[in-house]
Amino acid sequence: MSDTAPYVLMVEDTQSVALLYKSYLTPLELDVQVVGHGAEALIEVNKRQPDLVLLDLRLPDMEGMRVLKSIKASHPEVPIVVMTAHGSIETAVEAMRLGAVDFLVKPCEADSLRVLVNNILRSYRQQAMTEGAGARYQGFVGRSENMQHVYRTIDSASNSKASIFITGESGTGKEVCAEAIHAASKRSTKPFIAINCAAIPKDLIESELFGHIKGAFTGAATDRQGAAELADGGTLFLDEICEMDLDLQTKLLRFIQTGSFQKVGSSHLHTVDVRFVCATNRDPWLEVTEGRFREDLYYRLYVIPLHLPPLRERDGDVIDIAYSLLAFMAREEEKEFIQFTQQVIELFKRYPWPGNVRQLQNVIRHAVVLYQGQEITIPMLPPQLQQFVESEGSSNTTDAPSAHIEPLWVTEKKAIEHAIEKFEGNVNKAATSLEVNPSTLYRKIKQWQSMKHE
């Protein structure tokens, strides 16, 4: 990419939709050009190489897949995001197998589009995805209301120097969140250095954080830079901060207050400029009240709190994440998998995911590595999910369809329609009775309407 505004080519034949999506991207200060036909897109790509292509798969003159193949053949380095209607996710996954970096389900929210476009443009600028477009799986996937709040917080806080304290269960993506904060900040061209306070032995963590000089202790054969020095100008991420020893917490507090530190074995002060992001899967205030975490350090770090919701509270994101992971892992393992059976999809929605996104990654990796085919079926899943099916009292652990089980979205649709009818069309009152945000109902209604027109 050049130093000028990134050039985005949007291939969308419905003018009103194109104008709406273009307006969504206005805050990113991009050079967005819109064309309505596949042939026009191919001409424009050859005239001026875009930094990103947003490609609708339904075009009036040619199939979107054909446009995708042509662009990837002539300009393989150009990232392409495909846009598809609800209900055509399998097609989008096939597009990712052909080289698309990600997909958006239409109609999409403004925040979803902005975050995805911004992340991809930054990632390619930093050459973070040179190992393949599939690396996108390491970023956030999901459009639930809870995650929209996370995205907005990142956008708002990224350019501040204020410390951010991330909380959330294990496996919710706290390091991914820290990387996203760094990528969205003005420090994105500087280092992002992560240190896991729980994974390093107590007697070595000070050296890992601040570095040491030769001879400082047995085995210190040379001078060594620590994470604080390596992160100068960038972001220092302290994962599992509540595991840090109290004595080291005192030195960390002094470092945060002054920006200066001493290497182990040295009396010389080093001064750096770092932005602090930390994370824990514990309740940090409980750690303070029980004497395991310094209260003054807590107030220094807990400036902008950011809570990552568990997967079970992300309103259907599990399926979007699962498809994104499947596309990446199938390509990485050179397998033909492109979809899940409906029974697997329903199981994924019901399962509580105690290990969150990390557990979902392991489940899909297990199936992709050990089996062959195009569909992931229930017998391909690891034992814990099979046991969950059995514990539900199901006598059928195969993928044979059941005439007595209604798809979850149909049951949800009936409940929402009943609530709206009860309150004579008042969506806000219906949302209150269902204990959800009104925007959630409006989004679901919009999705169902779009399904009718497919």
From TrEMBL:
InterPro entries: AAA+_ATPase (IPR003593), AAA_lid_NorR (IPR058031), CheY-like_superfamily (IPR011006), Homeodomain-like_sf (IPR009057), HTH_Fis (IPR002197), P-loop_NTPase (IPR027417), QS_regulatory_LuxO (IPR053402), Sig_transdc_resp-reg_receiver (IPR001789). Keywords: ATP-binding, DNA-binding, Nucleotide-binding, Phosphoprotein, Repressor, Transcription, Transcription regulation, Two-component regulatory system. It comes from the Bacteria. The modification 4-aspartylphosphate is found at D56. Pfam families: AAA_lid_14 (PF25601), HTH_8 (PF02954), Response_reg (PF00072), Sigma54_activat (PF00158). CDD domains: AAA (cd00009), REC_NtrC1-like (cd17572). Residues 140-369 form the Sigma-54 factor interaction domain. Residues 7-121 form the Response regulatory domain. Transmembrane segments: none annotated. This is Sigma-54-dependent Fis family transcriptional regulator. It comes from Vibrio ulleungensis.
